[in-house]
Amino acid sequence: MSVLIENPGAPLELTGGSRFVRACLRRPVDRPPVWFLRQAGRYMAEYREVRKHHTLVEICKRPELAAEVTITAAEKLDVDAAIIFADLLLPLEPMGLDFEFVAGEGPLVHHPLRTLEQIEKLRTDRTSQLEYVAAAIGKVAGHFGESKGVIGFCGSPFTLASYMIEGGSSRNYVFTKQMMYSEPYAWQKLLDKLVSVLVPYCKQQVDAGADVIQIFDSWVGSLSVEDYRDYVLPVTKRLVRAVQELGVPVIYFGVETASLLPSMRETGADVIGLDWRTPLAEGWQALGDSCAVQGNLDPITLFAPEPILEMRVRQVLEQADGRPGHIFNLGHGIVPGTPVENVQTVVKMVKALSPRFTRKDLQVQTGNGPEVTLG
Ligand code: CP3
Question: Which of 207, 208, 215, 256 could serve as 134's disulfide partner, Cβ 3.0–4.6 Å?
Fold first, then answer.
Protein backbone atom coordinates (compact mmCIF):
# COMPACT_ATOMS: atom_id res chain seq x y z
CA MET A 1 0.00 0.00 0.00
CA SER A 2 2.46 2.57 -1.21
CA VAL A 3 -0.19 5.29 -0.98
CA LEU A 4 0.31 5.33 2.77
CA ILE A 5 4.00 6.14 2.73
CA GLU A 6 4.54 9.77 3.55
CA ASN A 7 7.32 11.78 2.05
CA PRO A 8 9.34 13.29 4.92
CA GLY A 9 9.50 17.03 4.80
CA ALA A 10 7.37 17.45 1.68
CA PRO A 11 3.94 19.04 1.77
CA LEU A 12 1.20 16.45 1.67
CA GLU A 13 0.00 16.13 -1.91
CA LEU A 14 -2.78 13.64 -2.03
CA THR A 15 -4.17 11.75 -4.97
CA GLY A 16 -7.80 10.67 -4.87
CA GLY A 17 -6.68 7.17 -3.94
CA SER A 18 -4.41 8.19 -1.11
CA ARG A 19 -6.94 10.76 0.17
CA PHE A 20 -9.56 8.03 0.30
CA VAL A 21 -7.37 5.39 1.99
CA ARG A 22 -5.98 7.94 4.47
CA ALA A 23 -9.49 9.00 5.42
CA CYS A 24 -10.47 5.34 5.99
CA LEU A 25 -7.58 5.17 8.48
CA ARG A 26 -8.51 8.50 10.10
CA ARG A 27 -5.34 10.18 8.95
CA PRO A 28 -5.56 13.91 8.22
CA VAL A 29 -6.39 14.79 4.61
CA ASP A 30 -6.57 18.03 2.61
CA ARG A 31 -10.34 17.56 2.17
CA PRO A 32 -12.76 14.69 2.72
CA PRO A 33 -12.80 12.18 -0.12
CA VAL A 34 -16.12 11.78 -1.93
CA TRP A 35 -17.77 8.88 -3.78
CA PHE A 36 -21.33 7.53 -4.01
CA LEU A 37 -23.09 4.27 -3.25
CA ARG A 38 -24.44 2.90 -6.57
CA GLN A 39 -22.49 5.49 -8.52
CA ALA A 40 -22.67 3.21 -11.58
CA GLY A 41 -26.29 2.38 -12.25
CA ARG A 42 -29.49 3.02 -14.14
CA TYR A 43 -29.56 6.77 -13.46
CA MET A 44 -26.57 7.09 -15.82
CA ALA A 45 -27.18 7.05 -19.61
CA GLU A 46 -23.87 5.32 -20.33
CA TYR A 47 -24.86 2.43 -18.04
CA ARG A 48 -28.33 2.16 -19.57
CA GLU A 49 -26.68 1.94 -22.98
CA VAL A 50 -24.49 -1.00 -21.90
CA ARG A 51 -27.55 -2.60 -20.24
CA LYS A 52 -29.44 -2.52 -23.56
CA HIS A 53 -27.03 -5.14 -24.86
CA HIS A 54 -26.20 -7.14 -21.74
CA THR A 55 -27.91 -8.44 -18.62
CA LEU A 56 -26.70 -7.29 -15.21
CA VAL A 57 -25.00 -10.63 -14.55
CA GLU A 58 -23.35 -10.59 -17.99
CA ILE A 59 -21.83 -7.18 -17.23
CA CYS A 60 -20.55 -8.49 -13.89
CA LYS A 61 -19.05 -11.61 -15.49
CA ARG A 62 -17.25 -9.82 -18.33
CA PRO A 63 -14.30 -8.00 -16.77
CA GLU A 64 -13.91 -5.60 -19.68
CA LEU A 65 -17.56 -4.52 -19.36
CA ALA A 66 -17.57 -4.36 -15.55
CA ALA A 67 -14.36 -2.32 -15.65
CA GLU A 68 -15.74 0.01 -18.32
CA VAL A 69 -18.94 0.69 -16.35
CA THR A 70 -16.94 1.27 -13.15
CA ILE A 71 -14.43 3.59 -14.80
CA THR A 72 -17.01 5.59 -16.79
CA ALA A 73 -19.05 6.39 -13.67
CA ALA A 74 -16.05 7.35 -11.51
CA GLU A 75 -14.60 9.57 -14.25
CA LYS A 76 -17.89 11.21 -15.14
CA LEU A 77 -18.48 12.12 -11.50
CA ASP A 78 -14.82 13.02 -10.78
CA VAL A 79 -14.93 11.20 -7.45
CA ASP A 80 -12.02 9.97 -5.32
CA ALA A 81 -12.92 6.28 -5.40
CA ALA A 82 -14.42 3.71 -7.75
CA ILE A 83 -16.49 0.80 -6.43
CA ILE A 84 -16.21 -2.25 -8.64
CA PHE A 85 -19.31 -3.02 -10.65
CA ALA A 86 -20.57 -6.36 -9.30
CA ASP A 87 -23.52 -7.53 -7.22
CA LEU A 88 -23.96 -8.75 -3.69
CA LEU A 89 -25.50 -12.03 -4.82
CA LEU A 90 -22.73 -13.29 -7.12
CA PRO A 91 -21.22 -15.66 -4.49
CA LEU A 92 -24.54 -17.56 -4.32
CA GLU A 93 -23.91 -19.20 -7.67
CA PRO A 94 -20.68 -21.07 -6.83
CA MET A 95 -22.29 -22.05 -3.53
CA GLY A 96 -24.97 -23.84 -5.57
CA LEU A 97 -27.93 -21.43 -5.45
CA ASP A 98 -29.33 -20.15 -8.74
CA PHE A 99 -30.81 -16.66 -8.89
CA GLU A 100 -31.95 -14.10 -11.41
CA PHE A 101 -32.83 -10.42 -11.43
CA VAL A 102 -36.46 -9.91 -12.32
CA ALA A 103 -37.13 -6.49 -13.86
CA GLY A 104 -38.90 -4.25 -11.37
CA GLU A 105 -38.78 -6.83 -8.58
CA GLY A 106 -35.09 -7.29 -7.80
CA PRO A 107 -33.32 -10.54 -7.07
CA LEU A 108 -35.09 -13.91 -7.07
CA VAL A 109 -33.37 -17.00 -5.61
CA HIS A 110 -34.92 -20.10 -7.17
CA HIS A 111 -34.68 -22.61 -4.32
CA PRO A 112 -34.49 -20.61 -1.09
CA LEU A 113 -32.83 -22.30 1.87
CA ARG A 114 -35.24 -23.58 4.47
CA THR A 115 -33.58 -26.75 5.85
CA LEU A 116 -30.30 -27.91 7.34
CA GLU A 117 -29.96 -30.47 4.53
CA GLN A 118 -30.00 -27.69 1.95
CA ILE A 119 -27.39 -25.74 3.92
CA GLU A 120 -25.17 -28.80 4.26
CA LYS A 121 -25.18 -29.20 0.47
CA LEU A 122 -23.92 -25.65 -0.13
CA ARG A 123 -20.47 -25.70 -1.74
CA THR A 124 -17.61 -23.61 -0.38
CA ASP A 125 -14.88 -24.93 -2.68
CA ARG A 126 -15.69 -23.08 -5.89
CA THR A 127 -14.84 -19.49 -4.97
CA SER A 128 -12.29 -19.46 -7.81
CA GLN A 129 -15.32 -19.20 -10.14
CA LEU A 130 -15.71 -15.62 -8.89
CA GLU A 131 -12.30 -14.56 -10.23
CA TYR A 132 -14.06 -12.47 -12.90
CA VAL A 133 -14.66 -9.80 -10.22
CA ALA A 134 -10.95 -9.70 -9.39
CA ALA A 135 -10.12 -9.55 -13.10
CA ALA A 136 -12.34 -6.46 -13.43
CA ILE A 137 -10.69 -4.91 -10.35
CA GLY A 138 -7.29 -5.52 -11.92
CA LYS A 139 -8.35 -3.55 -14.98
CA VAL A 140 -9.81 -0.68 -12.93
CA ALA A 141 -6.75 -0.51 -10.64
CA GLY A 142 -4.47 -0.55 -13.70
CA HIS A 143 -6.45 2.27 -15.28
CA PHE A 144 -6.54 4.57 -12.26
CA GLY A 145 -3.14 3.87 -10.71
CA GLU A 146 -3.16 5.93 -7.54
CA SER A 147 -5.42 8.65 -8.91
CA LYS A 148 -8.51 7.02 -7.40
CA GLY A 149 -9.13 4.48 -4.65
CA VAL A 150 -10.52 1.15 -5.81
CA ILE A 151 -13.20 -0.42 -3.63
CA GLY A 152 -13.94 -4.13 -3.67
CA PHE A 153 -16.98 -5.40 -1.83
CA CYS A 154 -19.03 -8.29 -0.56
CA GLY A 155 -22.31 -8.79 1.27
CA SER A 156 -22.31 -9.44 5.00
CA PRO A 157 -23.17 -12.92 6.26
CA PHE A 158 -26.54 -11.70 7.58
CA THR A 159 -27.66 -9.81 4.49
CA LEU A 160 -26.58 -12.63 2.16
CA ALA A 161 -28.21 -15.25 4.40
CA SER A 162 -31.43 -13.22 4.31
CA TYR A 163 -31.52 -13.33 0.47
CA MET A 164 -30.70 -17.05 0.48
CA ILE A 165 -33.44 -17.88 2.99
CA GLU A 166 -36.18 -15.45 1.91
CA GLY A 167 -35.51 -16.01 -1.81
CA GLY A 168 -35.44 -12.27 -2.48
CA SER A 169 -36.12 -8.94 -0.86
CA SER A 170 -38.29 -9.10 2.24
CA ARG A 171 -40.34 -6.88 4.49
CA ASN A 172 -40.32 -8.82 7.75
CA TYR A 173 -37.57 -11.44 7.34
CA VAL A 174 -39.86 -14.07 8.83
CA PHE A 175 -38.07 -17.14 7.39
CA THR A 176 -34.63 -15.71 8.19
CA LYS A 177 -35.47 -14.92 11.81
CA GLN A 178 -37.33 -18.20 12.18
CA MET A 179 -34.21 -20.13 11.22
CA MET A 180 -32.06 -17.90 13.43
CA TYR A 181 -34.25 -18.58 16.48
CA SER A 182 -35.39 -22.15 15.86
CA GLU A 183 -32.46 -23.80 14.13
CA PRO A 184 -29.34 -22.27 15.63
CA TYR A 185 -27.13 -25.07 14.29
CA ALA A 186 -28.35 -24.59 10.71
CA TRP A 187 -28.08 -20.78 11.05
CA GLN A 188 -24.51 -20.98 12.34
CA LYS A 189 -23.55 -23.47 9.65
CA LEU A 190 -24.87 -21.13 6.95
CA LEU A 191 -23.02 -18.10 8.35
CA ASP A 192 -19.80 -20.12 8.70
CA LYS A 193 -20.07 -21.33 5.11
CA LEU A 194 -20.62 -17.76 3.92
CA VAL A 195 -17.50 -16.54 5.73
CA SER A 196 -15.45 -19.36 4.27
CA VAL A 197 -16.47 -18.18 0.79
CA LEU A 198 -16.31 -14.42 1.45
CA VAL A 199 -12.77 -14.33 2.84
CA PRO A 200 -11.10 -15.91 -0.22
CA TYR A 201 -13.42 -13.85 -2.45
CA CYS A 202 -12.18 -10.66 -0.78
CA LYS A 203 -8.61 -11.95 -1.01
CA GLN A 204 -8.97 -12.29 -4.79
CA GLN A 205 -10.16 -8.68 -4.91
CA VAL A 206 -7.35 -7.36 -2.71
CA ASP A 207 -4.71 -9.32 -4.64
CA ALA A 208 -6.09 -7.78 -7.83
CA GLY A 209 -5.68 -4.22 -6.49
CA ALA A 210 -8.65 -3.31 -4.29
CA ASP A 211 -7.46 -0.67 -1.78
CA VAL A 212 -10.43 -1.06 0.57
CA ILE A 213 -13.22 -3.61 1.02
CA GLN A 214 -16.77 -2.51 1.79
CA ILE A 215 -19.03 -5.03 3.53
CA PHE A 216 -22.70 -4.34 2.73
CA ASP A 217 -25.01 -5.30 5.58
CA SER A 218 -27.85 -3.49 3.86
CA TRP A 219 -30.72 -5.13 5.74
CA VAL A 220 -29.17 -5.48 9.20
CA GLY A 221 -31.46 -2.68 10.42
CA SER A 222 -34.27 -5.25 10.57
CA LEU A 223 -32.63 -6.71 13.70
CA SER A 224 -33.05 -5.68 17.33
CA VAL A 225 -29.84 -4.85 19.15
CA GLU A 226 -30.15 -8.09 21.12
CA ASP A 227 -30.63 -10.25 18.02
CA TYR A 228 -27.75 -8.50 16.27
CA ARG A 229 -25.46 -9.16 19.20
CA ASP A 230 -26.55 -12.77 19.74
CA TYR A 231 -26.85 -14.00 16.15
CA VAL A 232 -24.86 -11.74 13.85
CA LEU A 233 -22.12 -9.71 15.56
CA PRO A 234 -19.67 -12.59 16.27
CA VAL A 235 -19.57 -13.86 12.68
CA THR A 236 -19.42 -10.34 11.25
CA LYS A 237 -16.52 -9.53 13.55
CA ARG A 238 -14.75 -12.62 12.27
CA LEU A 239 -15.24 -11.56 8.66
CA VAL A 240 -14.08 -7.98 9.32
CA ARG A 241 -10.91 -9.19 11.08
CA ALA A 242 -10.13 -11.71 8.34
CA VAL A 243 -10.48 -9.03 5.64
CA GLN A 244 -8.32 -6.58 7.61
CA GLU A 245 -5.68 -9.30 7.83
CA LEU A 246 -5.51 -9.16 4.02
CA GLY A 247 -3.96 -5.71 4.57
CA VAL A 248 -6.82 -3.34 3.69
CA PRO A 249 -9.23 -1.12 5.65
CA VAL A 250 -12.85 -2.28 5.91
CA ILE A 251 -15.97 -0.13 5.49
CA TYR A 252 -19.03 -1.69 7.14
CA PHE A 253 -22.35 -0.31 5.92
CA GLY A 254 -25.98 -0.83 6.88
CA VAL A 255 -29.30 1.02 6.68
CA GLU A 256 -31.59 2.01 9.56
CA THR A 257 -28.83 1.23 12.00
CA ALA A 258 -29.14 4.07 14.54
CA SER A 259 -29.64 1.74 17.50
CA LEU A 260 -27.08 -0.78 16.23
CA LEU A 261 -24.17 1.62 15.77
CA PRO A 262 -22.30 0.92 19.03
CA SER A 263 -22.58 -2.82 18.37
CA MET A 264 -21.55 -2.45 14.72
CA ARG A 265 -18.48 -0.61 15.96
CA GLU A 266 -17.53 -3.75 17.89
CA THR A 267 -16.87 -5.53 14.61
CA GLY A 268 -13.65 -3.50 14.52
CA ALA A 269 -14.38 -2.11 11.04
CA ASP A 270 -12.21 0.90 10.17
CA VAL A 271 -15.14 2.87 8.73
CA ILE A 272 -18.86 2.66 9.47
CA GLY A 273 -21.33 3.75 6.77
CA LEU A 274 -24.18 5.86 8.17
CA ASP A 275 -27.61 6.24 6.62
CA TRP A 276 -29.27 9.67 6.57
CA ARG A 277 -31.76 9.14 9.35
CA THR A 278 -29.22 9.93 12.06
CA PRO A 279 -27.38 13.29 11.91
CA LEU A 280 -23.76 12.47 11.13
CA ALA A 281 -22.37 13.99 14.34
CA GLU A 282 -24.80 11.97 16.44
CA GLY A 283 -23.97 8.77 14.59
CA TRP A 284 -20.24 9.42 14.99
CA GLN A 285 -20.71 10.07 18.68
CA ALA A 286 -22.59 6.79 19.08
CA LEU A 287 -19.65 5.03 17.43
CA GLY A 288 -17.01 6.71 19.57
CA ASP A 289 -14.04 8.47 18.07
CA SER A 290 -11.94 5.45 17.18
CA CYS A 291 -13.42 4.84 13.73
CA ALA A 292 -14.02 6.73 10.53
CA VAL A 293 -17.50 7.40 9.13
CA GLN A 294 -18.92 7.42 5.63
CA GLY A 295 -22.07 9.26 4.66
CA ASN A 296 -24.68 10.45 4.94
CA LEU A 297 -26.67 12.65 2.54
CA ASP A 298 -30.19 11.36 1.80
CA PRO A 299 -29.95 10.07 -1.81
CA ILE A 300 -33.34 11.64 -2.57
CA THR A 301 -31.87 15.09 -1.81
CA LEU A 302 -30.29 14.69 -5.25
CA PHE A 303 -33.74 15.53 -6.66
CA ALA A 304 -33.85 18.86 -4.76
CA PRO A 305 -33.20 22.32 -6.23
CA GLU A 306 -29.61 23.49 -5.90
CA PRO A 307 -29.98 25.79 -2.84
CA ILE A 308 -31.54 22.97 -0.81
CA LEU A 309 -28.95 20.50 -2.06
CA GLU A 310 -26.15 22.89 -1.09
CA MET A 311 -27.64 23.44 2.35
CA ARG A 312 -27.76 19.70 2.97
CA VAL A 313 -24.21 19.14 1.69
CA ARG A 314 -22.98 21.92 3.97
CA GLN A 315 -24.79 20.37 6.89
CA VAL A 316 -23.08 17.02 6.38
CA LEU A 317 -19.70 18.79 6.22
CA GLU A 318 -20.54 20.87 9.29
CA GLN A 319 -21.50 17.76 11.21
CA ALA A 320 -18.20 16.13 10.27
CA ASP A 321 -16.49 19.34 11.43
CA GLY A 322 -13.24 18.66 9.60
CA ARG A 323 -12.40 15.69 11.79
CA PRO A 324 -10.06 13.17 10.16
CA GLY A 325 -11.93 10.10 9.04
CA HIS A 326 -14.92 11.51 7.18
CA ILE A 327 -15.71 10.10 3.73
CA PHE A 328 -18.46 12.07 2.01
CA ASN A 329 -21.14 9.78 0.58
CA LEU A 330 -24.87 9.20 0.55
CA GLY A 331 -26.79 7.35 3.25
CA HIS A 332 -27.80 4.72 0.64
CA GLY A 333 -27.52 4.18 -3.10
CA ILE A 334 -28.36 6.58 -5.92
CA VAL A 335 -31.82 5.68 -7.24
CA PRO A 336 -32.92 5.45 -10.90
CA GLY A 337 -34.07 8.80 -12.27
CA THR A 338 -31.55 10.86 -10.28
CA PRO A 339 -30.23 13.77 -12.41
CA VAL A 340 -26.55 13.05 -13.09
CA GLU A 341 -25.78 16.79 -13.06
CA ASN A 342 -26.92 16.99 -9.44
CA VAL A 343 -24.52 14.22 -8.46
CA GLN A 344 -21.71 16.06 -10.25
CA THR A 345 -22.75 19.27 -8.49
CA VAL A 346 -22.43 17.58 -5.10
CA VAL A 347 -18.87 16.54 -5.93
CA LYS A 348 -18.03 20.13 -6.87
CA MET A 349 -19.68 21.41 -3.68
CA VAL A 350 -17.74 19.00 -1.46
CA LYS A 351 -14.49 20.04 -3.13
CA ALA A 352 -15.27 23.75 -2.91
CA LEU A 353 -16.83 23.89 0.54
CA SER A 354 -14.72 21.50 2.51
CA PRO A 355 -11.66 23.77 2.99
CA ARG A 356 -13.92 25.87 5.22
CA PHE A 357 -14.52 22.90 7.40
CA THR A 358 -10.97 21.54 7.41
CA ARG A 359 -9.54 22.14 10.84
CA LYS A 360 -6.52 24.40 10.85
CA ASP A 361 -5.42 22.97 14.17
CA LEU A 362 -4.61 19.57 12.67
CA GLN A 363 -0.92 19.07 12.28
CA VAL A 364 0.51 16.23 10.24
CA GLN A 365 3.77 14.72 11.40
CA THR A 366 5.69 13.73 8.30
CA GLY A 367 8.53 11.57 9.56
CA ASN A 368 11.61 13.61 10.49
CA GLY A 369 10.59 16.66 8.44
CA PRO A 370 8.89 19.84 9.64
CA GLU A 371 5.24 19.86 10.57
CA VAL A 372 2.84 20.52 7.74
CA THR A 373 -0.43 22.26 8.41
CA LEU A 374 -3.33 21.14 6.29
CA GLY A 375 -6.09 23.50 5.36
O1 CP3 B 1 -21.76 1.57 -8.51
C2 CP3 B 1 -22.34 0.66 -7.87
O3 CP3 B 1 -22.49 0.70 -6.64
C4 CP3 B 1 -22.89 -0.49 -8.66
C5 CP3 B 1 -22.42 -1.83 -8.24
C6 CP3 B 1 -23.41 -2.57 -7.36
C7 CP3 B 1 -24.56 -3.27 -7.81
N8 CP3 B 1 -25.11 -3.93 -6.75
C9 CP3 B 1 -25.06 -3.35 -9.22
C10 CP3 B 1 -26.52 -3.44 -9.40
C11 CP3 B 1 -23.33 -2.76 -5.98
C12 CP3 B 1 -22.31 -2.18 -5.00
C13 CP3 B 1 -24.41 -3.63 -5.62
C14 CP3 B 1 -24.59 -4.14 -4.24
C15 CP3 B 1 -25.92 -4.68 -3.90
N16 CP3 B 1 -26.69 -5.55 -4.59
C17 CP3 B 1 -26.56 -4.44 -2.67
C18 CP3 B 1 -25.98 -3.63 -1.54
C19 CP3 B 1 -26.14 -2.20 -1.79
C20 CP3 B 1 -27.38 -1.62 -1.22
O21 CP3 B 1 -28.10 -1.00 -2.02
O22 CP3 B 1 -27.61 -1.74 -0.02
C23 CP3 B 1 -27.77 -5.13 -2.67
C24 CP3 B 1 -28.79 -5.13 -1.58
C25 CP3 B 1 -27.83 -5.84 -3.89
C26 CP3 B 1 -28.91 -6.76 -4.36
C27 CP3 B 1 -29.61 -6.16 -5.50
N28 CP3 B 1 -29.07 -6.04 -6.77
C29 CP3 B 1 -30.92 -5.61 -5.53
C30 CP3 B 1 -31.84 -5.51 -4.33
C31 CP3 B 1 -31.15 -5.19 -6.84
C32 CP3 B 1 -32.43 -4.63 -7.42
C33 CP3 B 1 -32.55 -3.20 -7.09
C34 CP3 B 1 -33.21 -2.42 -8.20
O35 CP3 B 1 -33.18 -1.20 -8.05
O36 CP3 B 1 -33.71 -3.01 -9.16
C37 CP3 B 1 -29.97 -5.42 -7.60
C38 CP3 B 1 -29.77 -5.10 -9.02
C39 CP3 B 1 -28.61 -4.19 -9.33
N40 CP3 B 1 -27.34 -4.41 -8.90
C41 CP3 B 1 -28.63 -3.03 -10.15
C42 CP3 B 1 -27.32 -2.56 -10.22
C43 CP3 B 1 -26.81 -1.37 -11.00
C44 CP3 B 1 -29.84 -2.41 -10.86
C45 CP3 B 1 -30.51 -3.31 -11.78
C46 CP3 B 1 -30.04 -3.42 -13.22
O47 CP3 B 1 -29.12 -2.78 -13.75
O48 CP3 B 1 -30.69 -4.25 -13.88
Answer: 208
